[in-house]
Design a protein that fits this description.
Number of strands: 5
Radius of gyration: 17 Å
CATH superfamily of one domain: P-loop containing nucleotide triphosphate hydrolases
CATH topology of one domain: Rossmann fold
Shape: globular
CATH class of one domain: Alpha Beta
Number of helices: 8
Helix content: 40-55%
Distance between the termini: 21 Å
Strand order of the largest sheet: 2-3-1-4-5
Structural class: alpha/beta
Order of helices and strands: EHEHHHEHEHHEH
Strand content: 5-15%
Length: about 200
């Protein structure tokens, strides 16, 4: 099991959700925060790739869907998350990167975790659209090329932005300025958790 933060200034029972559009820096910040807290970072994208590589039941179902450029059904994602957060290293907490992405997925998460959204800190990473386009374009990823970048951002607007309304009434909902140096953003995140602890 992962050790708690050795400094002892943040509860090891942290549960965190990262929201924000593609290119906002969620993965980078989540990974750094997970290491600091001593809890696993759970990325649905990474997990799907692992399931596909290993040829698991989930991978066999998800692989063809992804290859066709379609979205993996909520049922598969929820099953994958349910299994992952039941593992021993998640007992002290975990950070979700890439889930939930829709209000429907958020409702499913409520049923998976005792206490639901009230037990999570939710960080909404805010970055200007122009900067997102610049960041995504500089990655040189096939799925970030040209119109694909715009489609991903538009998909976020339609499917994921409603999550902001779903979660913003939560007392532990945090709007975070992601248009800053990586270290400055990380210090901000840690400071917010320390104040809450």
């Amino acid at each position: 099991m992962a050790a708690a933060n050795p400094q002892g200034d943040v509860t090891p029972k942290a549960r965190i959700i990262f929201l924000g559009p593609p290119g906002a820096g969620k993965g980078t910040q989540a990974a750094r925060l997970a290491e600091w807290l001593g809890v696993p970072k759970i990325s649905t994208g990474d997990m799907l790739r692992e399931h596909i590589a290993k040829g698991t039941a989930i991978g066999k179902q998800a692989g063809p869907i992804i290859n066709q450029g379609k979205l993996v059904p909520d049922e598969l994602l929820v099953t994958m998350i349910r299994e992952r957060i039941a593992e021993p290293d998640c007992k002290q907490g975990f950070i979700l990167d890439g889930f939930p992405r829709t209000v429907g997925q958020a409702h499913s998460l409520e049923s998976l975790v005792p206490g639901g959204a009230a037990t999570f800190d939710i960080f909404d990473m805010e970055v200007p659209r122009e900067e997102l386009l610049k960041r995504l374009g500089s990655r040189q990823r096939i799925d970030d090329a040209g119109s694909t970048v715009l489609r991903r951002l538009q998909e976020y607007d339609v499917r994921t932005l409603p999550l902001i309304d779903f979660y913003k009434a939560n007392a532990r909902f945090h709007r975070v300025d992601g248009f800053r140096d990586v270290e400055d953003v990380q210090k901000d995140l840690r400071s917010r958790l320390e104040k809450r602890a």
